């Protein structure tokens, strides 16, 4: 993991670092202000509570059997949630496209041990916040409270929609829908993760892709 050290002696490097961190936080601020009005104080609170970090690909951010420590905002890169089934195979349940939030929500909110793993698929730039700090931010910022409720509602809606699609759409239609709505996933995420996310095995996905290309 790379954290960002503000105590840098070279003024030019320090200036570039400040610019870079502002750019990371600005993505979060822009997303919030699309849905809520932030005062200058609330903006500063968001920047202060969300810690910028970088991780390499394949890094496990949160492990099953432990209480999730952070809620993550994905600035760049791709992150997935997965668990192991009864056969010991990985099952990918969520793939995040930036910008967006990700964690094992129920376990994070209720601070209980998770049965899921959170992993960087690619190198990732992230902002993260601890549960205690998130609670403080919600208390101190009515705009962020409204925004967090909206994020939670959208998460519920997405999960309901995904469950319905897995139950009602054919494998080919699920792939075509992903290709239409999230084409960047197809270019950045390994096929075995995509196949698992779509509820099929890699051979079936390969066959569908070949049929579509013809």
UniProtKB/TrEMBL annotation:
InterPro entries named among the record's database cross-references: cNMP-bd_dom (IPR000595), cNMP-bd_dom_sf (IPR018490), RmlC-like_jellyroll (IPR014710)
Pfam families (alphabetical): cNMP_binding
Native source species: Chryseobacterium tructae
Protein name (record): Crp/Fnr family transcriptional regulator
Source taxon at top rank: Bacteria
Domain Cyclic nucleotide-binding: 54-140
Source species taxonomy: Bacteria, Pseudomonadati, Bacteroidota, Flavobacteriia, Flavobacteriales
Gene3D superfamilies membership: Jelly Rolls
Coiled coil: none
């Amino acid at each position: 993991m790379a954290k960002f050290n503000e105590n840098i002696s070279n003024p030019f490097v320090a200036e570039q670092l400040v610019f870079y961190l502002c750019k990371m936080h600005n993505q979060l601020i822009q997303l919030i202000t699309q849905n809520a009005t932030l005062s200058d104080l609330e903006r500063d609170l968001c920047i202060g509570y969300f810690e910028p970090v970088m991780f390499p690909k394949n890094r496990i951010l949160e492990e099953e059997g432990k209480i999730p420590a952070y809620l993550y905002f994905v600035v760049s890169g791709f992150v997935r949630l997965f668990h192991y089934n009864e056969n010991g195979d990985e099952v990918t349940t969520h793939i995040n496209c930036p910008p967006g939030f990700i964690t094992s929500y129920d376990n994070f909110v209720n601070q209980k041990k998770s049965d899921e793993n959170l992993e960087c698929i690619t190198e990732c730039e992230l902002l993260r916040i601890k549960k205690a700090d998130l609670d403080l931010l919600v208390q101190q910022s009515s705009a962020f409270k409204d925004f967090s409720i909206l994020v939670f509602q959208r998460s519920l809606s997405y999960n309901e929609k995904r469950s319905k699609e897995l139950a009602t759409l054919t494998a080919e239609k699920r792939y075509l829908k992903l290709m239409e709505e999230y084409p960047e996933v197809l270019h950045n995420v390994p096929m075995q993760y995509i196949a698992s996310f779509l509820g099929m095995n890699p051979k079936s996905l390969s066959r569908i892709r070949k049929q579509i290309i013809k």
